[in-house]
TrEMBL record:
Protein name: Signal recognition particle receptor subunit beta, a GTPase
UniProt xrefs under CDD domains: Ras_like_GTPase
Membership in a protein family: Belongs to the GPN-loop GTPase family.
Keywords noted in UniProt: GTP-binding, Hydrolase, Nucleotide-binding
This protein's record includes keyword Nucleotide-binding: yes
Single GO MF descriptor: hydrolase activity
Pfam name, any one: ATP_bind_1
SUPFAM superfamilies: P-loop containing nucleoside triphosphate hydrolases (SSF52540)
Source superkingdom: Bacteria
InterPro entries: Gliding_Motility_GTPase, Gpn, P-loop_NTPase
């Protein structure tokens, strides 16, 4: 007699793979593509285009940043967390002219990781506003530790972004697969708590 937890296909429920969609969002140049590439177990799908002189006045970065390409649609990657969970990662484009795509990219997501750069915090306000007011997807904020260095206390970042207390705020060097994995697990954990509660 099959166990009560067996599914119609004969496999125990615990043996079936579950997948979840996570969105990685944030302002222009904050590290979304880098995060997807750092963790994806498949070659990340990138929709990068060369930045041209014509876009220099629109897609501005601080002097000294050597970014030469920009995401024009989305980034996509996949990571198997364990034998029961696969995460599909969708990185949003950061420029304002691509924000109308965010509704489509967020649809069906269990949660979102919003990356911020404390050196360009003003570029983060639109993403924070979007997840706070325009969608019901659970989200957390992650300060990208460029060069592995925290330049501000998390409490200062929370205050500057006026983040509600229920939104988790963490810091990670998104060049590190281990750091990105921990950030994604924080998103999943927060989404699960929101669903329960």
């Amino acid at each position: 007699m099959p166990a009560l937890s067996d599914s119609p296909d004969g496999k125990p429920v615990s043996d079936r793979m579950t997948s979840a969609k996570i969105v990685i969002a944030g302002g222009f140049g904050v590290g979304k593509t880098t995060a997807v590439e750092a963790i994806s177990e498949i070659p990340a799908i990138r929709t990068e285009s060369w930045m041209t002189a014509a876009a220099a006045q629109i897609d501005r970065l601080d002097p000294g940043i050597d970014k030469v390409t920009t995401t024009v649609a989305m980034d996509f990657g996949r990571i198997t967390i364990d034998e029961a969970l696969v995460l599909y990662l969708f990185g949003t484009p950061g420029q304002p002219r691509f924000w109308p795509m965010w509704d489509d990219l967020v649809r069906g997501a269990v949660g979102a990781l919003v990356l911020v750069d404390t050196n360009n915090l003003e570029n983060s306000f639109a993403a924070v506003n979007y997840f706070e007011n325009d969608t019901d997807v659970p989200w957390i904020v992650c300060v990208n530790l460029f060069h592995g260095v925290a330049t501000h206390e998390l409490s200062e970042v929370r205050e500057a972004l006026t983040l509600p207390s229920h939104v988790p705020l963490i810091a990670a060097d998104i060049r590190s697969a281990r750091h990105v994995a921990q950030a994604l697990l924080t998103v999943v954990d927060h989404a699960a708590k929101q669903a329960i509660g």
